[in-house]
What does this fold into?
Amino acid sequence: MRKILIGIGTLLLALAVFAVFSRQLLVINEKPVKSDVIMILSGDGGRLEKGMELYKEGYAKYVMLSTPLGLEVSSKQQLQKDISPENLLFEQKATSTYTNAVYTKQLAEKYGFKSAIVVTSDYHMRRSKLAYDRVYKNSGIRLTYVSALYNSPVPWYKNPREVSHTVSEYIRLTGYMLGLYDFIDLPDGMEPGQTAQ
It folds into this structure.
């Protein structure tokens, strides 16, 4: 009986440690380098602000916002206020992280970009990198991944919204690792299993 209790206790301790540090496994945050464009994936708060911070620090001349059609007008207005129209690009066909990668690549190639900084939330970065690395493979475009880090006096595991984001992200990351985005959300005209060009 004692061995069983020790085993259960050890398992619970291991789960508790994983729960506290699990979000860190999702985070990729590289040092920004001078690039042609900053690609901001719309969604959670902090992404737009981080992208603008990098732009104001001179890391890129262009900013591209990859967003669903329903982006709040205020976000577009904020960008248009701070960036000259010729340096601001909008990608509005994406409906998922995978299609963010597909459609930003099309725009990047159209403009002849050779390097980009990809900005998204810290918990969303590992899945984003997985999708972007796959779509941009052999494109000749160098990608740097910079996270909008969780910044709160409350640890993420005490914030129900952040816990939900983290759990959901592990589920989605598993699907992406298995290549299931190929069947869930394909760009128009692409067949399942076909690689984005």
